[in-house]
Amino acid sequence: MLRKRGQKGFTLIELLIVIAIIGILAAIAIPMYKAQTIKAKLTEVTNSMSATASALGAYYMDNVRWPAGSIGTIQLLSTSLGVSVPPAANSRISVVNITGGVITFTASRIDALVDNLTLVMTPTTSAEGAILWSWSGTVPSVYVPKK
User: Fold this and answer.
1) Buried b (16+ CB within 10 A) or exposed e, 80-96
2) Tens of pLDDT along 45-75?
3) Residues forming beta bridges with residue 103, ordered by sequence position
């Protein structure tokens, strides 16, 4: 007496559905992963800018003015304001410029979407002496820190 055994395995349709689901998930996840990776790498730049803003704020509170002239190198940033950022050879920062309290850093070695673009912190002082910083620059707004 022969018994009919049940089919084992998956049908072609079931396999195609699984492949389609994986493709849809990958299409959503990969761009989000790339964006988060860029944001994570940009934190070196934004953290250095925040430290610079703190030093500039202290300078402004002590002297009631912004530093004269322009600070245009990472070395000058260290010697004039005491802010240490990673050296250019190991850094994600290629250009530093501080003029009249406005901090401009140029990103490098992060991703083609943001390399050679700038992040800018602009101060606004109130009558009471408080300093408010606003972010801008040429980096796409999705990567610019929130206020």
Assistant:
1) ebebebeeeeebbbeeb
2) 999 999 999 999 998 889 888 888 787 777 7
3) 98, 121
Q: How far apart are CA 121 and CA 130, in angstroms?
A: 15
d(CA 83, CA 54): 9
Tokens of 81: 């304001």
Q: What angle do the packed helices 74-81 and 12-63 form, to 10 degrees?
A: 40
Q: Which CATH fold would you assign to the domain 13-143? A: Glycoprotein, Type 4 Pilin (3.30.700)
Rounded to whole angstroms, the Cα distance separating 127 from 91 reads 37
Residue 46 identity: T
The phi, psi pair for 32, rounded to 5°, reads -65, -40
**Using alpha carbons only, how large is the chain's radius of gyration in Å?**
25
Sign of CA dihedral 136, 124, 66, 41: negative
pLDDT in tens, 7-53: 678 899 999 999 999 999 999 999 999 999 999 999 999 999 999 99
CB 122 within 8 A of CB 133: yes
